[in-house]
What we know:
Layout lengths: L1 H22 L18 E4 L22 H6 L4 E10 L5 E6 L7 E4 H14 L5 E7 L5 H10 L21 H6 L4 E6 L11 E2 H4 E3 L23 H6 L3 E5 L3 E3 L5 E3 L4 H4 L8 H12 L5 E4 L7 H9 L22 H21 L2
Parallel strand pairs: 1-2, 1-12, 2-5, 5-6, 6-7, 8-9, 9-12
Antiparallel strand pairs: 2-3, 3-4, 10-11
Helix pairs in contact: 3-4, 9-10
Bound molecules: 2-acetamido-2-deoxy-beta-D-glucopyranose (7 copies).
Amino acid sequence: MFLRTLLQTASILPFLYTSASAQTACNNSPSLCNKAYNNITHLGTHDSPFLRNNSTSFSTSGNQYYDSVTQLDAGVRLLSAQVHKSNGTDGSTQWHLCHTSCDLLDAGTLSSWLGKIKGWMDNNPNDVVTVLLVNSDNASPAELGAEFQSSDIDQYAYTPSSSSAPQTWPTLQSLISNGTRLMTFVASLTPSSDFPYLMDEFTYVFENDFENEEPTEYSCNPDRPTSLTSPSQATESGRMFLMNHFLYSTQIFGIQSPNDTYVNVTNAQTGLGSLGEQIPKCTSVYSKPPTFVLVDFFNRGPAIVSVDTANGVTGAVGRKSVSTAAPDEPTSGVSRRQGSLLAVIVAVVVAVTFGV
Ligand SMILES: *[C@@H]1O[C@H](CO)[C@@H](O)[C@H](O)[C@H]1NC(C)=O
Ligand SMILES: *[C@@H]1O[C@H](CO)[C@@H](O)[C@H](O)[C@H]1NC(C)=O
Ligand SMILES: *[C@@H]1O[C@H](CO)[C@@H](O)[C@H](O)[C@H]1NC(C)=O
Ligand SMILES: *[C@@H]1O[C@H](CO)[C@@H](O)[C@H](O)[C@H]1NC(C)=O
Ligand SMILES: *[C@@H]1O[C@H](CO)[C@@H](O)[C@H](O)[C@H]1NC(C)=O
Ligand SMILES: *[C@@H]1O[C@H](CO)[C@@H](O)[C@H](O)[C@H]1NC(C)=O
Ligand SMILES: *[C@@H]1O[C@H](CO)[C@@H](O)[C@H](O)[C@H]1NC(C)=O
């Protein structure tokens, strides 16, 4: 009897194993495991670490209400940031994540931020994450690579198989099985064989115009790299499409800040200039959905709904929910004004420095 039970158990074990692995989700859904990295749509946060919350006195320069780890928990799989040169208190060079200028909004060192992403990846072994860095002060591969090494995230880094855009990227499952779950793009840098995982963004990716102030201005046409002048050229180049989808507001002195008053439509499924209507427009231009969509205030909308639709994903698993509302801001507006005042001061300094 015991032996028979054991045999029965043993005979169903392979079935259990198969069914368990078939149910394993990659980037929150089993249906994505066998799709190529470039055949799915990844939700990206524009200026991921630049917060408009109480930690920045609700700075009007902030692009997100919730931090990068909360973004990952909620299903975001591409995080973008600007890297700037900054002086340490001892006068040493440091690489910080700053919005336009480190005097305006300084979100700390690149290595500290990468360390938080690495910690999240340790705890989420079936997820492929993309980091997109804007190399504002031309950090060298060695300087950026040192930050990846000190945060230990380099152990997850994927190295491309080709120095030009491949037509086919690995599936999520093969990236996961190989332990190379971190994709890193930098705009821009000269590739180095010492840090081969630091990919020059515009070698592999093209973007539409990101300078939009009205919900009628979005275009699907390639804008960068400037060598691409038509959608067909972009497709033939093999590059992946990153669809910028956010609005700026122009403040006094021409300072741009993210438009938060319209973002509930910008990131919604329907409405003028909504993500849910813009993705299908670009999908019909390129005969496939964008590989990445980049948004401000990702929790509004919420943007993930339109990305799930693009991926044909229903019943995503393993996400932590986050409020779709804007967080409460001080009603007096005192804290928020500090951010605007700082922006004005920086604008004045810039104007004096450049004589404009
Ligand atoms: C990726 O998509 C192309 C068509 O767009 C298809 O031919 C190919 O089989 C897909 N590959 C994977 C692994 O998803
Ligand atoms: C920000 O809000 C959190 C949660 O409400 C609170 O714990 C924290 O003390 C606040 N921090 C600041 C700097 O106000
Ligand atoms: C604001 O962001 C900081 C930094 O990520 C975080 O520690 C804090 O909890 C956030 N505040 C709220 C109210 O979420
Ligand atoms: C860093 O310090 C050097 C030397 O004091 C100075 O010339 C430079 O402007 C400083 N850079 C920044 C970004 O503060
Ligand atoms: C997985 O790693 C092996 C050994 O490094 C390599 O040959 C293979 O190309 C990798 N596969 C993918 C999909 O990256
Ligand atoms: C945001 O965009 C909407 C739509 O164009 C506009 O009505 C609104 O004034 C903008 N908000 C700000 C703060 O500029
Ligand atoms: C967006 O917010 C405005 C102002 O609160 C509101 O009037 C409008 O109905 C909201 N739209 C959507 C799609 O939620």
